[in-house]
Amino acid sequence: MARWLFFFAEYNFTVEYKPGKQNVLADALSRRPDYELAHLVYLESPLYELIREAYAEDDDLAGLVEALGAFNKAVELTARHRSRLHRYSEWRVCSTTK
Length: 98
Fold this sequence. Notes:
By secondary structure, the protein is mainly α. It has two domains: 2-35, no CATH class; 47-94, no CATH class. The chain has helices at residues 2-8, 24-30, 47-57, 62-69, 79-84, and strands at residues 85-88, 91-94. β1 and β2 (91-94) form a beta hairpin. It is elongated, with a radius of gyration of 24 Å. This is Reverse transcriptase RNase H-like domain-containing protein.
């Protein structure tokens, strides 16, 4: 939002409120039928659980798994562990050299 405020600060304009009935264009765009979901599929896979279990059983990664599981504790990771840890949204992935 701050980025947009910075961008629009270069322009001189006035924002005017239009009630829904008067703002026909915005209403038409927001109700376009092509934005409706055609089909929604939920897949269940044990893959993440299998990966989590394999990390816990790996001698080289057991310390990293333990540190990541300590949410309320201040844990310092070694430089070796930090270099191997990658985060993608909510999933944390660790790469191995093997």
